[in-house]
């Protein structure tokens, strides 16, 4: 039928036995235990460093000599729990977010009017006469050329067009005092030989300490992070355990491997459990078995404590700063020699030359230290099976921080869950104790009442019985309603009627006394039977 089977035919098919489910394909893990159910997929990055012959080689990494099949016994006892927590379920479709709109940028142009305004402001802040500026540069007078003034003068360095105009004005022997203050400032700077290079040297006194100290701190911080990752034992052990778990998940596929990359461990924190109230993610499970059996892994946070500081360092910015510093240093080195020759033995100029030489030596030492850091970084990346040409050091640091952070968070969550369960158990025990105490109290109260009742019944004597009978009779007679017949007010009762009513009352009283006597005698017989049974029990 081109339109397909009818609904009635479908119903009949279901009645006969329904559609047969395909048999679950058995998966095999060549490097460890295999799951009995279909597991969630965990996509891992395989270490595939190849040697000259094109074969995969783990030479230079901690994966060399690692027997994944033999070492997989570490997780055999945990595989049933893994099957319960991470069976394959259909993921919910996520809503796609619209891409952010690109921000528009604006361009600002600098006009000549702003240049004039800027020069006027700088000149007022300098508070120096043009001749004082010229003299201080020639003599390298650092008492006049303070750090703040050098920064201001660096912004006032004449441009090429301004230099040509000012030199032409000076060549015509025109009076410089007729110029405005900002032109006189520029003219004084033009008259200083290589004024821009001299300002570079003076700025270097301020910038060298800042730049070199910052670069040295950055290099040392990154070096400490590299050394930690090179020497840690907890992180490789965690990766070994993750290999076994991933092979258990990927049994029967091509993803059963003996070595994985750091990026694979991020997916352990993303894979959610089927029982979120017990174990949230696969990383929580790894933290659980580590705390239970493989406690060496718990030291991973302490052994990688400097990696976060190392990842915060922007080495590209450090390189740029060093490159700019090197350019300044080359200009300063050349100018310091020329300045010393034209100073005719001025001591302040000679001290500047010594300062530049010291900066050169310190910079060379820093560059050597940085080259050493880069060599160590390559060795460390190779140890973890990473290709230094494909991954940057900062990117690897970020991966380690993400993995260690998720492991630490999982460990904290597990401990908080244990504390919560312990608190609930303690609260339940307190409730149980309160209920038991209440039941015991009720039991004692009932026993006391029974004892009191037994004493009261045993205390009755024959004399007391008669008095009780009479007391009950009187009370009954008082409670009994008096029945009177309504007679007319004019008629009086006869003597015969009064005698009949009196005999009737006596009869009622005697019958009530008989009932009360029989009731009391019945209670006494019950008490006697109880005492007999108690005496027989005691015997």
Order of helices and strands: HHHHHHHHHHHHHHHHHHH
Average pLDDT level: 80
- Unreliable spans: 10-16, 103-111, 531-539
Rg calculated over all Cα atoms: 51 Å
Structural class: mainly alpha
Query: Which shape, going by the Cα principal axes?
Result: elongated
Largest sheet: none
What kind of oligomer do you see?
single chain
Region (Disordered): 1-32, 451-539
Domain FH2: 29-433
Protein name: FH2 domain-containing protein
Organism: Octactis speculum
Can you put this structure into words, describing what you see?
This protein has 539 residues and is mainly alpha-helical. Helices cover 65% and strands 0% of the residues. It is built from 19 helices and no strands. Helix 12 (282-292) crosses helix 17 (393-458). It is elongated, with a radius of gyration of 51 Å.
Give the arrangement of secondary structure elements.
Blueprint lengths: L6 H10 L51 H4 L7 H7 L26 H15 L3 H10 L7 H9 L4 H12 L9 H10 L4 H37 L2 H16 L12 H9 L11 H11 L7 H4 L3 H5 L3 H28 L4 H37 L9 H66 L3 H18 L15 H44 L1
